[in-house]
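tool=predict chain=A
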Amino acid sequence: MVRNPFRNLAGSWRLVVALALPCLLVSCGRQGDVSPAVPASATNEAPVPVVARPEFDQLKGRWERPDGGYVLEFRNVDTAGVVEAAYFNPGPIRVSKALALQEQGTTKVFVELRDVNYPGCTYSLSYDPATDQLHGVYFQAAVQQTYDVVFARLK
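tool=predict ok
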């Protein structure tokens, strides 16, 4: 006769939970009960160098669509490509996501808008250094259509 080693697992599991739960609850105490983390300077690990992404610097600034006065503003781009962005038509529209990437030597930026009348509208743009413009498409989510767009840098 073969014994099933998992037969009493349910009872054992309840015992483990009963013993572990009080320990877990105690460890979730007030914030002041947590010992401070050791600062990175107190360890002997070398800090990770921040790699600059100069290809994203060209995105910084204000860009205007000449066909309607819509303005995209890119303030910062971190090393992971996350962009601090704003959009105006003419008042501010909430930017829910903005990402920059380098693809086959071309700097690209993706912007998603989430606001009243902008339910997930997106811009997918590529930077053209010869004209100092952003070219691409605008997806108007409300009507499920895409439009070719160009943004020129505002001086």
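The first strand starts at residue 61 and ends at 64. Strands lie at 61-64, 71-77, 83-88, 92-93, 95-103, 106-115, 118-128, 133-140, 145-153.
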